[in-house]
Design brief:
heterodimer, A: about 350 residues, mainly alpha, about 0% strand, globular, B: about 170 residues, mainly beta, 6-stranded antiparallel beta sheet, 6 strands, about 20% strand
């Protein structure tokens, strides 16, 4: 081995062995990298979604004819964007409340403070669910329609663009607004100097998201209600929580938290198993007699009942052996108090 | 070669933080816990006046009465019409620590534009942790006249970019 090769070997070995960051710092690097990667996917999928929006025509969209393929592409990209955001929402939403609202607010959430008679422009009801409401407008479940009609006079029926103005608005206003907002989110995130507390709270936030979503499922209020893909959302929430938590494991175990870590990992397994028993992107249909407060024994035994109870058990911090309870214990072990959620 | 080794080591270790996107003039300051760690060493003023007149309906009083110390991490330049991005104002009271941070951009567009509100918890080991952050208090908390939020009083004070304390207000010509 000549002198140059020897020096290169020394260089490589030195770099390899000198870059072991302390576990708390390594966790931050990993979480930040994971978040940025998903923000990149979110922006990229949103852009592709918008590229696929049919060109404006006098008669609007031809959903069963010339525009069918475009709409299918929009659906595919919509789901890609959705998964990317749901993986990181737990840590992102608290940092960007306004962008979270403009991109991820539900229809009924927008109507709490405003009215919107033009569903295709970039004012009022906007974001990923506004687009979802249009893209899946011919396949919305009756329970969802019933729930939204009950919102009263502010309710405007979902539909495809039916004229040039409407289709132009989707192409040039509503969809670009989503791209602009998620791009802004990604840009601002590049200014975040993440700390351990903020990052770990994101994991807990992701877990709470899952219970919120399953809780709303029985009333037509579920998050991705038009696409019937809220199961896909919660799977992404769980995946995001698992991958983010993975970054913290060395730190937790270095603080004599191995037993706690094992309980948390076990909790993930239980939830993952429950989710895997629900194939597809949609929640199982809740029984007509479902009550989340006091479900009957028969209702508990349905696919929806089993899913609801599994999520409830693992996300209830009052439950001594729940996943979230153990996560809060891990946060305490790391010196992180809970972030109050708005 | 040894210099090269040292340079590579220095460049390849430590947190891999990326610089913000280049080619943009936008600047943001998104505070995290550690930004509050040293606030007790900043310029400060202690006040004890009662501002109960600001709360005619008898809302939560502690935020505006009793002893409170207000800290600022940096003063704006003389004649500035707003506080620079990165300004942190902390208000410490016997039972709580509140803060507002000039985050920049159009954040808090419907309230105190560009400012983010915080409640801070200070650990015994003298490091800070954010209890809540955002456009206003967490659910169930109230710091002004009933039904109001941080933005109600601070957002109304446009002439001093939301900073109410006399010692730290903007001094415009």
């Amino acid at each position: 081995m000549n002198r140059v090769k020897a020096n290169i070997l020394v260089l490589v070995l030195t770099v390899v062995f000198s870059c072991g960051l302390p576990p708390d710092q390594q966790a931050l690097v990993d979480v930040q990298t994971f978040t940025k990667k998903n923000l990149d996917t979110l922006v990229s999928a949103s852009e592709k979604l918008c590229v696929a929006v049919p060109m404006p025509t006098a008669n609007g969209w031809d959903a069963t004819g010339t525009d069918q393929a475009s709409i299918e592409t929009m659906k595919t990209q919509w789901k890609a964007a959705r998964v990317a955001y749901e993986r990181i929402e737990g840590s992102i939403a608290v940092l960007f409340p306004e962008l979270d609202e403009s991109t991820d607010q539900r229809y009924d959430g927008f109507l709490e403070t405003a009215t919107d008679t033009n569903l295709f422009d970039d004012q009022g009801v906007t974001g990923i669910h506004a687009l979802e409401r249009i893209i899946w407008s011919n396949a919305i479940p009756p329970s969802v329609v019933e729930f939204e009609k009950a919102l009263g006079s502010k309710f405007v029926e979902a539909q495809f663009p039916k004229n040039e103005t409407q289709s132009k608005n989707v192409k040039e206003k509503l969809c670009p607004k989503l791209v602009s907002d998620v791009t802004e989110m990604r840009q601002q995130y590049s200014f975040v100097r993440l700390d351990a507390a903020s990052a770990f709270r994101g994991v807990i936030g992701s877990m709470r998201e899952q219970f919120e979503k399953v809780s709303f499922a029985s009333t037509g209020e579920e998050e991705s209600r038009y696409a019937q893909s809220t199961m896909l959302d919660v799977k992404a929430n769980l995946e995001g929580a698992q991958l983010t938590y993975e970054a913290f494991r060395p730190w937790i175990t270095s603080q004599k938290g191995s037993a706690l870590d094992a309980k948390i990992m076990q909790g993930f397994v239980v939830l993952e198993k429950a989710y895997n028993e629900t194939p597809g992107d949609a929640f199982p249909a809740p029984p007509l007699t479902w009550s989340s407060v006091s479900p009957s024994a028969a209702d508990k035994n349905t696919p929806f009942g089993k899913l609801f109870l599994a999520v409830q058990k693992q996300t209830d911090e009052a439950e001594p052996e729940s996943l979230v309870k153990h996560m809060l214990e891990a946060a305490t072990l790391l010196g992180i108090p809970e972030l109050k959620m708005k | 070669m040894r210099v090269l080794v040292l340079v590579v080591i220095l460049m390849s270790c430590g947190p891999q933080t990326e610089m913000p996107d280049s080619g943009t003039l936008k600047t943001y300051f998104i505070a995290t816990d550690t930004d509050f760690d040293s606030f007790r060493g900043w310029e400060r003023v202690t006040i004890a006046g009662n501002l109960a007149s600001l709360q005619p309906d008898g809302g939560e009083p502690e935020h505006q009465s009793g002893q409170r110390t207000i800290y600022i991490n940096q003063r704006p330049k003389p004649g500035a019409t707003e506080f620079p991005v990165g300004t942190i104002v902390v208000k410490e009271m016997p039972d709580r620590i509140l803060a507002m941070v000039k985050r920049g951009g159009t954040y808090n567009a419907k309230g105190l534009i560009g400012w983010e509100h915080f409640r801070i918890y200070f650990r015994p080991n003298q490091t800070a942790v954010v209890e809540w952050r955002g456009l206003g208090p967490a659910n169930g908390e109230d710091y002004g006249p009933r039904g109001s939020s941080c933005n109600t009083c601070h957002g109304a004070n446009k002439s001093s970019d939301g900073v109410l304390n006399a010692a730290f207000r903007l001094r415009n010509p």
